[in-house]
């Protein structure tokens, strides 16, 4: 499982002194993009191809609090993928001291910024998706491109 350790920072906190919901989404996106960069697909390549991820749905589940300056381990796996890799369900889990704190599941696709529509990714982007560890509830999704 792809894993990164991050810190719950000042800007991640809400009025109740725990990590705000949008901070989980932001950190999920950061870990995802780190994964692609580490697997030969840096941000410069997304820009060159005029291609980017587009999230159609986010689901957050909370189990334990994360507080200011907590070290949090964030995992990244795949919960669903279409055969053409145009559509995916990405899963991030957040752990503090080995305990599951939150789970983010995002349904997403690849957006062609020039054509302004969903697209099939190039092979060098689809392969890292296919290489991700599958979650226990993984499912094959229909493709987004008609």
Automatic annotation (TrEMBL):
Entries under SUPFAM superfamilies matching the protein: Thioesterase/thiol ester dehydrase-isomerase (SSF54637)
Protein name stated in the entry: Thioesterase family protein
